[in-house]
UniProtKB/TrEMBL annotation:
Residues 175-435 form the Chorismate-utilising enzyme C-terminal domain. One of its GO terms (molecular function) is isochorismate synthase activity. The lineage of its organism: Bacteria, Bacillati, Actinomycetota, Actinomycetes, Micrococcales. InterPro entries: ADC_synthase, Chorismate_C, IsoChor_synthase. Transmembrane segments: none annotated. It comes from the Bacteria. This is isochorismate synthase. Keywords: Isomerase. It is an enzyme of class 5 (isomerase). It catalyses: chorismate = isochorismate. Belongs to the isochorismate synthase family. Its EC number is 5.4.4.2. The keyword Transferase does not apply.
Length: 450
């Protein structure tokens, strides 16, 4: 395990100076539009966490902390607390996401060289429940006058489309991946695991360097019920919320069990009914929900696990979904904790869930390492943000792609599928193709999702 801290300047003088003020007039009245926030982003390393027009966008880099190994979550938490201990904060809004904020992204596997990162931006603009705010995070000796949006937003430069995009097999070919799935099924039938989640990557090469804002705006428009994110070159729109922690309440949206949409509404309603009664998909879903409920139990005084999942309708697929909720134990309660665990600590406890790894966790993770044939990097790892009080939102980095930091014309797209004893390799390959649709669409120029 190692931890590295870097920043744009030679050193980051302490303390950090954080100022949050209310904003008026961002966007028109009525339903929030994600473009109101996303249109503020510059081309260089934009940060985003947006859903249904609310959320956070940010840019600049006041501080960056890189971590690795099994201790990456704890190391990131410790570094963030060190930063906060030296911060001078004036927060005039006092909402989740105001004051000091850090964005983060972490590798799926402890052994991955991708490790993890938290980025403390220079500028954050947020919106929640009709209220909008601006946060600036700087360094220096004293707080300055209240910032204004016009002082921190540059001229609007429209996103540039990536041009023609050519796709190729990733670490494992499509046909080869069916063999990977077959090996997973054999391991399940041999009793090695109950369920395993297997992923594949696809390589893309764009004609022009990929403008992250292009992908973000297409994803936020087409997939408004998902959490559209951008952190350190990882971009996507995840339908799965690993954990939200807010004022002692926690929520986790669990997805497992998928069927592709046909594009015909009547046919899709019939497919939703099939999914809701599929023994294979219900089994896969139950493993995922149980793993989340068990991981949250030590931290909560009470939890609520729905008896049956609902069907989540997305433009490309239908998912079985359950929202698991809980109430964190009171500080100093039976568990003897001095305070609530942070949202990042909860994410660390939950990761990896059965929805992205399998059951039992340790055996499934070893099987993935043995047969999957690639490094997932930060795909299927936690991605999101947290604030000074530890509250925040962390999604699972699904429906996502990693942009090559050296050559931004190169992109890795990812998709994974839950495999149980009743799984069929060709069907799993077809499901993975359906899950690649959002990022293929995000990199495209037309309006077709297929």
């Amino acid at each position: 395990m190692s931890t590295q801290t870097s920043a744009p300047a030679d050193a980051v003088p302490q303390p950090l100076l954080v100022r949050t003020v209310a904003l008026d007039g961002l966007g028109d009245a009525g339903a929030p539009d994600p473009h109101d926030l996303l249109d503020l982003l510059p081309t260089e390393r934009p940060l985003a966490w947006v859903r249904r027009g609310d959320g956070l966008v940010a840019w600049g880099e006041t501080l960056r902390v890189e971590v690795s190994g099994a201790g990456r979550f704890a190391d990131a938490e410790r570094a963030w607390q060190d930063v906060l201990a030296r911060a001078i904060v004036r927060d005039e809004v006092q909402l989740p996401g105001t004051g000091p904020v850090a964005f983060g992204s972490f590798a799926f596997d402890d052994r991955s060289a991708a490790g993890g990162v938290i980025v403390v931006p220079k500028v954050v603009v947020g919106r929640r429940g009709g209220r909008t705010w601006l946060t600036t995070i700087t360094t220096g000796a004293r707080l300055h006058a209240a910032p204004e949006l016009g002082d921190v937003v540059g001229p609007r430069v429209p996103p540039v489309d990536p041009g023609t995009v050519v796709y190729a097999d990733g670490a494992v070919s499509a046909d080869g991946w069916k063999e990977v799935v077959a090996r997973g099924i054999a391991a399940i039938r041999a009793g090695d695991v109950d369920k395993v989640v297997l992923a594949r990557d696809v390589h893309a090469r764009a004609e022009h360097p990929v403008d992250v804002r292009w992908a973000l705006e297409r994803l936020a428009t087409e997939y408004p019920s998902c959490w559209t994110f951008s952190v350190d070159g990882l971009v996507g729109a995840t339908p799965e919320l690993l954990v939200r922690s807010e004022k002692g309440l926690v929520t986790s949206r669990v997805l497992a069990g998928t069927i592709r949409r046909t594009g015909d509404d009547a046919a899709d309603l019939a497919r939703a009914a099939i999914l809701a009664h599929s023994s294979k998909d219900l089994e896969e879903h139950e493993y995922a929900v149980t793993s989340v409920a068990h991981a949250l139990e030590p931290f909560c005084s009470s939890t609520n696990v729905p008896d049956v999942p609902f069907v989540l309708h997305l433009p490309n697929v239908l998912h079985l979904a359950s929202d698991v909720t809980g109430v964190l134990r009171a500080p100093g309660g039976d568990a003897g904790r001095a305070e609530h665990p942070s949202s990042l600590a909860l994410a660390a406890a939950l990761h990896p869930t059965a929805a992205v790894c399998g059951t039992p966790t340790v055996a499934a993770r070893e099987l993935i390492r043995s047969i999957e044939g690639m490094d997932r990097a930060r795909y299927a790892g936690p991605v999101g943000w947290f604030g000074a009080d530890g509250d925040g939102e962390w999604g699972i980095a699904l429906r996502s792609a990693a942009i090559d930091p050296v050559d931004p014309r190169r992109v890795r797209l990812f998709a994974g599928c839950g495999v149980v004893a009743a799984s069929d390799p060709p069907a799993e390959l077809a499901e993975s193709e359906a899950k690649l649709v959002p990022m293929r669409y995000a990199l495209g120029r037309d309006t077709s999702r297929s």
